TrEMBL record:
Family indicated by similarity: Belongs to the TRAPP small subunits family. Sedlin subfamily.
Lineage, uppermost ranks: Eukaryota, Metazoa, Ecdysozoa, Arthropoda, Hexapoda
GO BP terms, alphabetized: endoplasmic reticulum to Golgi vesicle-mediated transport
Any one annotated GO CC term: perinuclear region of cytoplasm
Species: Apolygus lucorum (Small green plant bug)
The protein, known as: Trafficking protein particle complex subunit 2-like protein
Keywords (A to Z) from UniProt: ER-Golgi transport, Transport
Pfam families: Sedlin_N
Cell location: Cytoplasm, Perinuclear region
Transmembrane segments: none
C-alpha cells in the first residue's frame, strides 16, 4: 500500500524510515521532512481553534505531488508518523489510511515499551520492522 513510512520524534529527528525503492530513498526523506512543516501548521491551527477535538490524531492528506500522496498522524506525545503512498493507487480509502496509522501507532507503542529500548534512539525492533514492511508495497 505505502511506498515509504517514517516515524519522526518530537524534535523532528527521524526515528525510523523505511522505503520500498532504495534508489529514491533520499527523495522520500525530502518529502517526509517537507511534510513536517504542514504537520506543525495543522497542529498549531488545531490548538488555536476552540471547540476542536484534540483527540483526532490523523491529520489526513498533508499534500500531494504528481507521483505521491503524503498522509500524517501525530501521537499524544508529539511523535509524527508519515505515510507516502503512490498517487496511482486510487483504491485506498480514508478509513484504510486510518487503520494503517492505528496499526503503526500500536507497533510503535510496543517497540518503545520494551524495557531495553533507550528513549530517543532509532527504533531497531524486529517486530516493528516486520509490521512496517507488511504495510509497504512490494515492488
Amino acid at each position: 500500500m505505502a511506498v515509504c513510512i517514517a516515524i519522526i520524534g518530537k524534535e523532528n529527528a527521524p526515528k525510523y524510515v523505511a522505503c520500498t525503492e532504495k534508489d529514491q530513498e533520499l527523495d522520500f526523506h525530502y518529502k517526509v521532512h517537507s511534510s513536517l512543516d504542514i504537520i506543525e501548521e495543522k497542529l498549531s491551527a488545531t490548538s488555536l481553534t476552540k471547540g476542536t477535538d484534540l483527540r483526532e490524531q490523523c491529520l489526513g492528506l498533508l499534500y500531494a505531488t504528481e507521483e505521491h500522496k503524503i498522509y500524517g498522524y501525530v501521537t499524544n506525545t508529539k511523535i509524527k508518523i508519515v505515510i507516502v503512498i503512490d498517487a496511482n493507487h486510487t483504491g485506498l480509502r480514508d478509513n484504510e489510511i486510518r487503520a494503517m496509522f492505528r496499526k503503526l501507532h500500536g507497533a510503535y507503542a510496543d517497540a518503545v515499551c520494551n524495557p531495553f529500548y533507550i528513549p530517543g534512539d532509532p527504533i531497531t525492533s524486529k517486530k516493528f520492522c516486520e509490521t512496517v514492511h507488511g504495510l509497504l508495497v512490494k515492488s
